[in-house]
Design goal:
This protein is of the alpha/beta class and about 350 residues long. It is built from 11 helices and 13 strands. The site of uridine-diphosphate-N-acetylglucosamine has 22 residues, from helix 7 and strand 8.
Length: about 350
């Protein structure tokens, strides 16, 4: 075994894929999750995929005493990967205080406990949303941080600052901030993926639910943007590839290879794909026709953003590997599995 890693939000979408990759790389994992947006059986599925059932603590990171208990029960945690957060952009506009409390106090609790329990570092789930609409594409880590469009986006920016300030104050810890682009797809086993929670707001779950007949029609939000086909452009990153980036980050941190105490990496493919291109790739990769129509723009959408992942490629040694076809097939396979399991 390489080291004990605490994964908050470890039963969630990106968290569960990351736990699988960590265990397959011989790390020991302790999951902390309050199951607010996930299911306990994800732990069993992780066990099925890897042959190892991770330790699981149903604890809310806001509950400081319960969180501290976890550090006491699982002595020797070397690093934390902090996924646990609320992530619905629209909801964050409706319930800003919920978002600020959940996303900020959770991080503060962890940062306070880390030195007390000798935890060496934290990998934080950040987002390309911190760049807003970048002036230069592809966007590098040096691009300016733009004013956040939503309380959700603001929590990511504030959390990055909290980590910088904490390290600057002399607390002996390292941090790696991973700025994710748009994670999509599911594990090739079909055992874990993104679980539906009401009407999806993100493109891929809405698209696969339309393809299977749960939704009647996919709306494409705008075809009058200043892009080649008029629809918005994003950098869609396979969730397993994204999960692997965390394993590289943990290894770099625990092997003491960081050049700075806080390092930032873009985690994307480097390729921008438009909404219409994505729909057509889905149709050709799966053979399933999609019912879609163009509607007006969605408020708050960025026109186009894709990553320059050169730093992650060179410094972390990580590369996105999976093609868009395979990724979209995995998303479709997951939707079919959800139906088999009677989950809509
Ligand atoms: C959003 C957030 C991002 C957050 C991510 C995951 C913004 C600006 N960004 O990313 O911070 O990390 O969600 O929660 O809010 N689309 C359609 N029809 C749909 C749904 C989406 O055309 O039914 C289009 C959108 O206009 C966009 C693209 O698909 O161009 C991707 O949308 P989405 O999956 O919601 O992700 P982002 O908005 O990029």
């Amino acid at each position: 075994m390489k080291g004990k890693i605490l994964v908050t939000g470890g039963t969630g979408y990106i968290g569960s894929h990351t736990v699988v990759e960590l265990q397959q790389s011989e790390y020991e994992v302790v999951i902390v999750d309050n199951l607010s947006n996930s299911r306990a059986d994800v732990v069993d599925y992780i066990g099925q995929i890897t042959g190892v059932r991770p330790a699981f603590e149903q604890v809310d990171c806001l509950d400081r005493p319960a969180l501290e208990e976890v550090f006491c029960r699982h002595q020797g945690i070397e690093a934390i990967i902090h996924f646990a957060a609320s992530k619905a952009v629209g909801e964050s506009v409706q319930k800003p205080l919920l978002y600020y409390r959940n996303n900020i106090v959770s991080l503060i609790n962890l940062l306070e406990l880390m030195p007390k329990y000798g935890v060496k570092g934290i990998v934080f789930s950040s987002s390309c949303t911190v760049y807003g609409q970048p002036d230069v594409l592809p966007v590098t880590e040096e691009a300016p941080i733009k004013k956040a469009e939503s309380p959700y986006g603001n929590t990511k920016q504030i959390n990055e600052e909290i980590i910088h300030d904490t390290v600057k104050s002399g607390v002996p810890m390292n941090a790696i901030l991973l700025r994710y682009f748009n994670p999509i797809g599911a594990h090739p086993s079909g055992l874990i993926g993104e679980l539906p929670n009401g009407v999806p707001m993100n493109l891929i779950p809405y698209l696969t639910q339309t393809a299977i007949g749960i939704r009647e029609q996919l709306s494409v939000f705008g075809d009058d943007y200043n892009t080649p086909d008029g629809s918005c452009i994003r950098d869609y990153i396979n969730v397993v590839d994204l999960a692997k980036a965390h394993v590289y980050a943990i290894a770099r941190m625990l092997e003491g290879k960081q050049d700075e105490q806080v390092e930032v990496f873009n985690i994307g493919t480097g390729r921008g794909v438009s909404v219409l291109e994505l729909i057509h790739t889905f149709e050709s990769a799966t053979g399933v026709k999609l019912n879609y129509r163009i509607v007006g723009r969605r408020a708050g959408d960025i026109e186009q953003v894709w990553a320059d992942p050169a730093k992650a490629n060179k410094v972390l040694g990580w590369h996105a590997e999976t093609g868009l076809d395979d990724t979209l097939r995995s998303a479709w396979n997951w939707q079919l599995k959800l139906r088999e399991r009677g989950i809509q």
